[in-house]
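Posting this for the archive.
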Amino acid sequence: MSMLTQLLQGTATDPLRHARLHAERDGVVIGLVGYDTPVELVLAADALPVQLPAFADRATPEADRYLEASFTPMLRSIVDEWLRGRFDFMRAVIFSRSDDSAQRCYYYLCELQRCGLAGGPTPLIFDVAKIPRATSRAHTQASLRTMAEALSSDPAKLAEAIATRNRRRTLLSRLELARHSARPPVGSDCERLLRLADAVPADRLDRELAAWLAGDFPPHQGPRLLLAGSVPPDGRLHEAVERAGGCVVAEVDDRGLDGRGPISVHGPDPLPVLARHHHELDCGARSFGDRVALLARRVSEARADGAVVWLIEEDEASVWQLPAMAAALAAARVPLLSMTRRRWDARDGTLEQIEAFVRRLQVAR
């Protein structure tokens, strides 16, 4: 077992362990909700960024008192943990406006705190704009400056923070190439890495990830799968593929869309370049990115034998792209398992259907 695997397995049982330890040593911890939050500004504030964990198999009675059914299960879980005091050691939590549930959770938590019904860290909103025009990019840049002030980010440390994040982006690009090869790492290991990467201090995670990628993975003889749609809560979908002899070699979802490579900084102020990066990221329902073109490209690059599009009941935006995704996969002659209006915890026959689909691909091979 590699050091990276051991690190991630330990973190999976307690995703906030490293963050709590950092706070106990008088360090500042900033929580993140959303996959396009400005991690660089957190690093430039000498704080530890950590993605807030969510749990598919835990009841959410505290959150159910305040949140309507339209909130995504992930945000419902996070609010429940918040109301139970699990994030009290953090100074603030940044919510991304690109996700509707995250934006509404920000407003709800602000109001609950104002009414004395909730404690916890200070909620902050990253008012990122996604419309592909100059005024939208300027708005995102102004939002970054506002966020930098709220976090007390040091402008002199921003370039170094971007370099730290660029190191992660370079390593994840290497991981993507490895997954496209004939010797892909196990899909559930990659899922755990993507889910927990921002629950571990950057230097340690990146060091172990580099060592892991330098190793040799065994060849994979079974079907190669692409998983698209809603972000799964954990590795249960990937593990279902593996039980049937397959391997997920690519994803198309919000968590895996920071694929633009390192950010090149020119001039004394890196903020405009950082604003362009966040403005153009395809994360969130308010993005204008072409998910269908991305799906077609990744299916080809990963040499996928089949694709699973899995959409939870609360994912009302992505489902509109399903017909175009199905058409693109049909044109590429890639079999598709389409799964809509699903439970986030996959306790609705999802895993069994995925296994059956992969076994059919196995026979076809």
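The chain has two domains: 17-157, 166-364. Residues 92 and 122 are 4 Å apart (CA to CA).
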